[in-house]
Every structure is written in C-alpha cells, then in structure tokens.
Amino acid sequence: MARIQESPTIQLALSVAVLLVIVPLVAFAWQPDREPLEPIPTVTSLVLAPAQSVAAPGSSLTLSVKALFSDGTGLDVTNGEEGVSYRVSDEASVRIERGGRFHVAEGAPIGQRIEITAIYQDQRATASILILYRLADTVQSNEEGVPVVTNADSITVIVNKERNLPASYEPADLIRPDVAFSSSGDREKHYLRQEAAEALEALFAAAAEDGIELVAVSGYRSFETQARIFEYNVRSNGGDEELANRWSARPGQSEHQTGLAMDVSAESVSCALETDFAEAPEGQWLAANTHRFGFVIRYPQGKENITGYGYEPWHIRYVGETVAQQVTEAGLTLEEYFTR
Fold first, then answer.
1. Could you read off the pLDDT of 15-34 as tens digits, one per residue?
2. Where along the chain do its domains lie?
3. Are 55 and 104 in contact (CB under 8 A)?
4. Residues 329, 335: contact at Cβ < 8 Å?
5. What is the predicted pLDDT for the residue at 24?
6. Reading across the β-sheet that carries 113-120, which strands appear in turn?
7. Highest mean pLDDT among 91-100, 168-177, 238-247
8. CA triplet 298, 301, 304: central angle to 5 degrees?
C-alpha cells in the first residue's frame, strides 16, 4: 500500500496547533508563586452623627453618615450619591433631603422625639432628634428694654422674671373647668385655657377615683389683677419688693396670666396655699400623678435659684403630656428643660 505524503502546509498547521495547546500548559505549570488577591472590603457598620440632637420647629440640621469597612477604612456617604437612603419616624414633623439635611416643620410638637435612620448596603444607623426651641429664640426686648415672649399662645411658653407676657395678653380660649373650687360664684380665677381645663378635669376625676379630693383655688389672672396682687404683697412685706417677689410675681411675669396654671389645695388643709400641703395625702398624690395629665409642679423644692420663686407644691402648670413626662422623669424645671 502506498504511503500518503503530508504536504508542508498541513505539517505546519499541525505544529502550530500543538504549540497552542502545550505552551499555555507549560507556562501555567511553571508559573511562579503569587500573592492571593485581596478580598473586596465590605461595609460592617454605619456611624450617623450627631447621634442625639435638639432642633427647634422651623429649623434645619445636617447629619453626616460614615460607612466603616472590614479593612478598617471609612467613607463619608452622606450626600446620597453613594447609595445611602433615609427613613424618618414622623414625616409630618421632619422632612429630610439628599445630603443628610433635614427640616423641622413649624408646627412640630414640642418634646417630640424623631428617629432618623440612615441605610447603606444593608447597614443601618439611627439618630434621635428632640424637637425643642431654645429660650433665647422666643423672647425679644420691647422699646422699653423689657424682655417679652414671642410665643405667648404656646402651651409651652415660659414666663418668669426674665420673660414677660405682653401687658395686653389674654388667652382667647378661656373656659371654666368642671371641678370643685374653694370660692363660689363665677370668677376670673376660675378659668383656664381649654386644653388645660380639660386636662384639669381629668386629673381631678382620677384623684377622686383614688379617694383624693382636690380643690382648685386660683387659675387665670389678668395683668391688672396680678398688679393688684403684687402691690398688696409688697405692702404686706413692709414695702420690700424683692421679698414680695420671692413668692409673688410682678405683673406680666405671672404664669397665671397664661391661663395654663392652677393653684390646687384640699379641704384637709383648709384650702390654704402653704408648703404643708406637700405633706398632706392630697399634695403627695398631686406630686406623684400630675405629669400623667400634662401638668408639672412648676416651682419645685431646691430649685429657687433657677425658677426665681420659692417652693410651691400647690402650683401646677400645664405643658402637655409629652413635655410633662420628660420634665418629671428628668427632675428638671422648665427653665432647665428648655436650655438643654
């Protein structure tokens, strides 16, 4: 049988094919040792700052979000272009934009805590924002240089010796709460603002259920009424205004003019407004329960240098349940609460 002679072209093609297979195998077999590839860093946690803050209604604040990686490095991802997103616990009170800037609504409730959560690559971090105005933001000196509050109608208005109500201020929603009073008839001092009056009714009803009989003594007072009361107290203290001012407010500086304060006593102490009321069962119940209905003991013991007034266990002030709860739990005066 005759042998078939392969052409030079076929031989060359076969040789090239063999080289294409063998050379890579040899190269792979003789490849020197190499360092293994570094793993891609992953996000292990987020840091949202500030973690706690205070913001006033109508104000804005910028948060920052930092992603921490498994290799120990970090990256600022606040601007949102890196994939960060935000969640807000109350969108009616706080609106948040890309870049971590949030805006508090003008009508956001004082004392409300807003939780803001940043989310990035399945990691989360949360910041707590307390809605609270600063005292300095709600007072302005008039032409006579008298510091006058700018939020007289707010249920959290702070009135004291450095913060006056306008002389002409009178609440528009005064009503007479359906509670027992120490005096008969229909008098100016029997009135409170509607929200405070309804809360006082609930407080008195709860006390009665516990066998405690409270008596309302004095609520709203006009600027003119307070002026007469202060003048009387000055005369009773030998003309010493400073001594009288330890217990009695000058006109314009009384919480009673807000329509949010009520002096409370009991028949067991002859309806007197004395510090002994604190030791009576009625006074003890009031101190322990008033915050449940949105009131605080406005002038607590040991805080005279802050409030400007002596201890008055009978004087309760309505500020709403949220603020009252926070103030009472923290053992603060309203002045301290609003300067945090």
1. 545 555 555 554 555 555 55
2. 43-131, 135-337
3. yes
4. no
5. 54
6. 52-55, 123-131, 113-120, 85-88
7. 168-177
8. 75
What three-state secondary structure class fits 224? helix
Nearest to 130 by CA among 24, 21, 195, 50: 50
Contact 111/323 with Cβ under 8 angstroms?
yes
- The rounded distance, in Å, linking the Cα atoms of 312 and 276 is 10
Round to whole Å and give the CA distance between 169 and 171.
7
Angle, helices 281-289/194-209, rounded to nearest 10 degrees:
120
CATH 2.60.40.10 fits 43-131, yes or no: yes
| Residues 74 and 67 sit within 8 Å (Cβ to Cβ) | yes
Positive or negative, the CA dihedral 200, 205, 207, 208 is positive
Q: Report CA dihedral (251, 256, 259, 264) to the nearest 10 degrees.
A: -170
Report the pLDDT value the prediction gives residue 4, as an integer from 0 to 100: 46
- Per DSSP, the residues of 174-188 read EE--SS-BSS-S--G
Joined together, the tokens standing for residue 309 give 């007034």
DSSP 53: E
Q: Which fold has domain 135-337?
A: Muramoyl-pentapeptide Carboxypeptidase; domain 2 (3.30.1380)
Q: What is the number of alpha carbons within 13 Å of residue 55 lying toward its C-beta?
A: 30
Enclosing H/E stretch for 227 = helix 223-236
φ/ψ (deg, to 5) at 77: -115, 20
198 within 8 A of 294, measured Cβ to Cβ: no
Quote the pLDDT of residue 333.
Answer: 97
pLDDT of residue 2: 47
Looking at residue 246, its pLDDT comes to 83
Residue 165 confidence (pLDDT) above 50: yes
Q: Which two tokens stand for residue 79?
A: 């601007």
Please tell me what DSSP assigns to residue 248: S
Angle at 103 between CA 99 and CA 109, to 5 degrees: 145
Active-site positions?
312
DSSP secondary-structure letter at 193?
Answer: E
Locate tokens 């793993």: which residue?
39
Q: What is the pTM of this model?
A: 0.82
